[in-house]
Design goal:
InterPro entries: ARM-like (IPR011989), ARM-type_fold (IPR016024). This is HEAT repeat protein. Pfam families: HEAT_2 (PF13646). About 2% of the residues have low confidence. Helix 2 packs across helix 4, helix 6 runs parallel beside helix 8 and helix 9 packs parallel to helix 11. The protein starts with a helix and ends with a helix. Helices cover 78% and strands 1% of the residues. It contains 11 helices and 2 strands. The protein has a domain of 120 residues. The chain has 278 residues and is mostly helical. Strands 1-2 form a two-stranded antiparallel ribbon. The longest helix has 67 residues.
């Protein structure tokens, strides 16, 4: 580049004597050489920059991969620690500790890191005062229906056969309508109904409640669950019978009875469509 600059200065100086040293053609060729040299330098710079960028990208990918591996191991470790801590809290005699355990469990279930300890903690809390009982002087001291209710709702998000079996047992055996209603809702949300066992358990639970102490909130959950499980229920006789009884039982509110008629109509329409399609 310095060479070209000196060359042009000499030629310009020569022009002052009205006789340039070089012709226009020579100047054009030199100009082309200058352009080619600039192009060559630019190409070299671009190639070097591309190589450097590619190298930096490879290094970045390796660093990201290493960080992901470290994060995965860390999350697995924290998940195990959380599961152990939560299970300990769930087995505690303290009501407050059980509430803390439920808060932990809700976050763990949302994150999807459900370990065996987490599932065991939910089982413990769902059956608190029912499956596991603590007594002092013959009096039950761990009857916490609000804890059982929340645990049932979380079991629905965990899913699986084990959760389904736990919920069926609670729906049938619990004496608190709000806990039964939560278990029934969870069964409907999960949708696991092999051999109609979930639908039959819900019908049995609501039948017992309807005879002893009709509760509209539980009946609504029963109807919603029946609606969700109708498609997977092979023998709908028990289901239809219970819905019909809810619709005609004036212990329930008008809204509940109307809802029962809606669900009943929907199930009959589905049955008719299935029959005509065969």
């Amino acid at each position: 580049m310095i060479f070209f600059s000196i060359f042009y200065r000499i030629n310009e100086k020569a022009k002052t004597f009205r006789k340039p040293l070089f012709s226009a053609k020579v100047l054009q060729e030199i100009e082309q050489m200058k352009f080619d040299k600039i192009t060559f330098c630019a190409a070299v710079l671009i190639t070097a920059a591309s190589a450097l960028f590619a190298q930096e990208q490879q290094v970045q990918k390796k660093n990201d991969s290493a960080k992901r591996g470290e994060t995965s191991v860390e999350n697995e470790y924290l998940s195990d620690v959380d599961g152990t801590v939560v299970l300990t809290l769930a087995r505690s005699d303290s009501y407050d500790n059980k509430l803390v355990a439920l808060e932990y469990l809700e976050g763990i279930v949302k994150s999807g890191n459900v370990s065996e300890d987490v599932a065991a903690a939910l089982d413990q809390l769902a059956g608190e005062g029912l499956m596991t009982q603590a007594r002092t002087g013959g009096r039950l001291v761990n009857n916490f229906p609000d804890v059982r209710r929340k645990a049932c709702l979380l079991l629905a998000k965990v899913g699986g056969e084990h959760s389904k079996n736990t919920l069926i047992n609670i729906a049938i055996a619990d004496n608190e309508p709000m806990v039964q209603a939560a278990a029934i809702r969870a069964l409907g949300e999960m949708g696991l109904n092999e051999n109609d066992e979930a639908a039959d358990a819900i019908a049995f639970a609501n039948h017992r409640n309807r005879v002893l102490n009709p509760t509209s909130s539980m009946a609504i959950e029963t109807l919603d669950a029946f609606e969700k499980l109708a498609g997977s229920t092979e023998n709908k006789r028990t289901m239809v019978d219970e819905i019909s009884r809810i619709a005609s039982d004036y212990h329930y509110t008008t809204a509940v009875r109307k809802r029962a008629l809606e669900v009943l109509k929907g199930i009959k329409l589905d049955s008719s469509s299935s029959g005509s399609g065969k």
